[in-house]
Amino acid sequence: MSAAIIGVGQTGYRRSFPDKSSRELIWEAARLALEDANMDIDGIDMVISGVAPDALAGEASVERTAMLGFGKPFLRINTGGVTGSSAVFAGNTYIQARRARAVLVVGLERMGQATSSQQVFNTIFDPVYEKDFPLTTITMAALRASMLMRLYGYTAMHWAQIASRSFRNAMRNPLAHIRKEVSPEDVLNSPMLAWPIHRLEACPMSEGACAVVIVDKGMVGDRNPAWIQGAASITDSYAMGDRIHRPGATLVDLLSLKLAAKRAYSQAGVDRPREQLRAVELYSAFSSAEAMAYPALGFCTAEDGPRFVEDQFVDPSLPVINPSGGPQGANPVSATAMVRIAEAALQVRGMAGERQVADVERAVATGQGGATQFSTACVLGKQQAA
Amino acid sequence: MFEDVYIEGAALEFSWADPKRSLTELIFDTVSNAVNDAGQEYDGIDSVVLAAHDLVDGRSLSSMVTAPAAGAYLRDEVRYSDDGAGAFSAAVARIEAGESERCIVAAWGRASEHDVEELSRALFDRIILAPLGLEELHVSAMNAQKWRINGGDDSHVNAAQQRRKAAAGANPRALQQGGFRSQPAYPFVEEHLPLWADAVAAVVISPRPSRVRVKGIGLSSEPYWLGDRGLAKAPALQRAAERALYEAQIGIGEVDLFEIDGMTLYDEAIALEAIGRAAPGQGMAMLAQDARCNPSGGSMAGYSVPAMGLARIVEATLQLRGVAGGVQQGAPRIALASGLSVTAAQTQTAVILEAV
C-alpha cells in the first residue's frame, strides 16, 4: 500500500453542540485536518463523507450542507457503525487506484439532535421477526456479555475493570466527551441497564466531527505520516440466530473482525500482533464487547480472554488498549470508527499528547457496526508496508 | 493493480408493490440475474458495493438486512448512501486498486413502500429550506423555468415526451403496470414527471476482458444552497462528463448512445446540454429527435432513488451488447451513462462504456 494519513482534525466530542451547525462542525474538523497536513482545500482531489443513521440527525444527508470544495468528486458512505472506517478505506482505495492523490475524509455525528436515539437504533432490527422481542442495542450486547461469561469465565468485575481503564485513559484525552475518574466499584454500583451491563459500561451518546487527510506516497514529502499498512472489512450474516449456532464461529467469536484482521495483518506483514501492535484503538460500544475483539485480533485465545484483561494492568509489554479512552470516552456513532483510525494515526505519528503511548511503531484500529455484523481492521505504521 | 475494468453481467428490474416478494427477495433476484449473466457463481465474487438509502428502505441501517441479499455474506462489502453510479465508480476503483477481482455492484429503491415526497422534504435544511415545503421535484421545476427564461427551445416538449413514452412502452425492462406520479409543479404536466417504481439494478465487474469495458469515469459536485448553484446548467454533470471524456480520450461526438439520469423530462433535456450533446437551449429538441438519447425511456420507464445511475449503466451496457430488446439502437460502440444524487442532483457521476 502506498497511502498515508498526514492530517487529523477533531472537534472534540460532547453530548451536543447546540451552538454549532452540522456544517460548522464539519468545516472545523476539516480545517484542523488540512492545517495538520499543511494543505488547503485546493490541494484535495476528492471528498468522502458519511453520516449514519440519517435518522439520528433528523435530516437526510445532513453533511451535504457542508459541501467542501464543491466541484470536486464527492461520495457519501453509510455502513452504520463502521461508516467512519469505510470512508477512510474508500479514500485509500481511490488513492491506490490512482484516481486521486489527496482525499479529505470527514465523519459527522449529530445524535444530540435526536429526542429518541434508542428508538432510532432499535429500528435496525427486523420489523417482522424481531420486533416482538425486547431487542435493543443494549440487550443485544447483554446477550453477548452473558454468553462470554458462561463460555469463558468473564465476571462482572472484568467488565468493570475494562470500563474503569477506559475512563482513566479518557482523562488524558482533552477531546473526550466523558472525562472523570471512575473506579471498578463505581461501575458496579451504577444502574443496571440490562444484565450484566451497567450504565458505566456503556458508551455515551456524543456529537462531533472527525476528519483525516490521506495522500499518496508522492505527496508525503517531509510531512509526518501514518502509513496505511493494511485495511480490510468483512460483512457477516444479519440474523444473530444464524451466528449462535454456526459451526466454528459463535456469536461472540466475532468472525467478521477475525477475517478482516487476518487480511489487514497479511497486507501489513503482521504475524505476531500481540508484540507488533503497540497501540490498539477498538470500537467497542460496551466494555464487554471489547473482550470479543481480543481473540479476533490475535491477542489471546477466547479462553484466555479474562486473563488478558487482568494482565493489562500488570504487564507493560502488552498492547495498550484504547489509550484515547475509546468509545466510552466519546461515541459519535457515524464518526467513531474514523476516530479510532485518527487516534491510531496520532499514536503512530507521536502526536497524541498526554495519551501518547511510548514506542508506537504500529497501531491497529477497528470498526464495528450493525449488531457486530460489519467489521473493519486498519493497521497503521511509521513505515510503509513492505 | 488493474488497468482495465469490464462489466461481465448486468440486470435491472422494475416492479410495483409485488405482494409476493420482500425487498430482500427483489434484491436477491436481480443480483442473482446479474451474477448469472456474468456466467459466474457467488463463489466467484469477492466483494460487494451497494447504493441504498436508509430512509428509502425504512430502516435505521438498511444494509444489515439487505447486504446479505446482495451477496455480501462474509465478503468485503461497503454501502454508499449515494447514487448507484457513484457506487459503480467506487467499485471500479476497488478493482483498479487490486482490492477485488470480481465485484457485485447493486442499487435499489422501493418507492411503493416509502413516501417519496416526505423523504424528499427531509433532504432540505431544517431551518431555512424545509419550512418552504421544498421537494426535489420543485427544484427540477425551478430548473425548467430557468431554462425557459434562458431561451431554452420549448417547442419540442410534446415531441420529446411522446418519444420518451414510446421508448418506455417498448422497453422490456420498463414498468408497464403500477407506479404513480407526484403532483406536478409548474411548468410540468404529469407525464413530465418520473414514474415512481420499485427498482433494483446490479452489475458484476472484473478486470477480466468481457463484452463491455469501462473507458472513463468522472464525478463532480455542486454547493448545497440552491442560490449558489447554476440552475438550468447542471454544472456538476458538465464537469463529470468532461472528466469522463478526458479519461476516455474521446470527444462527445464519438459517443454513440446516451443514458442520462434526470428526474423529469426537462432535467433530461438540460443534462444533454450539460454533457455537450446538445447546444445550449436545444436539449429538448435533441431529446425529441435523437432516439439514441435515453432510448430506455428515461424516467418514464420507472424511477426510484438511489438506483437510477446504475440503471442507466445497465441500459447502456445492454445496448453495447446488442441485447436491449425493443429499444436496441443498432450497434453502438461507445455509450455515456450518468447518475445523479440527492440533494437535487448535488453530485453527478458520468461513465463512458465501450463495446469490446
Helix content of chain A: 25-40%
Query: Treating each run of at least 4 consecutive H or I residues as one helix, how many helices of chain A?
Result: 15
What structural class do the secondary elements of chain A suggest? alpha/beta
How many helix segments of chain B? 11
Would you kindly provide a written description of the structure presented here, covering whatever features stand out?
The complex is a heterodimer of chains A (386) and B (356). Chain A has 386 residues and is an alpha/beta fold. Helix content of chain A is 37%, strand content 18%. Chain A has helices at 22-37, 54-57, 83-96, 117-122, 137-152, 156-170, 184-189, 217-220, 240-244, 255-268, 273-276, 287-296, 305-311, 326-329, 333-349, and strands at residues 3-10, 46-50, 74-77, 102-109, 192-194, 197-198, 208-216, 226-235, 279-281, 320-321, 362-369, 374-381. In chain A, the strands form two sheets. A ten-stranded mixed beta sheet of chain A has the order 3-2-4-7-1-8-12-11-9-10. In chain A, strands 5-6 form a two-stranded antiparallel ribbon. In chain A, helix 3 packs across helix 15 (333-349) and helix 12 crosses helix 13. Chain A is globular and about 55 Å long. The termini of chain A are close together. The model of chain A has no long low-confidence stretch (mean pLDDT 94). The two termini of chain B are 21 Å apart. The longest helix of chain B has 15 residues, at 23-37. The model of chain B has no long low-confidence stretch (mean pLDDT 96). In chain B, strand 8 (334-340) and strand 9 (347-355) form a beta hairpin. A nine-stranded mixed beta sheet of chain B has the order 3-2-4-5-1-6-9-8-7. The relative contact order of chain B is 0.19. Chain B has a domain at 212-355: Thiolase/Chalcone synthase (Peroxisomal Thiolase, Chain A, domain 1, 3-Layer(aba) Sandwich), CATH 3.40.47.10. Chains A and B meet through strand 2, helix 2, strand 3, helix 3 and helix 4 of A and helix 3, strand 3, helix 4, strand 6 and helix 8 of B.
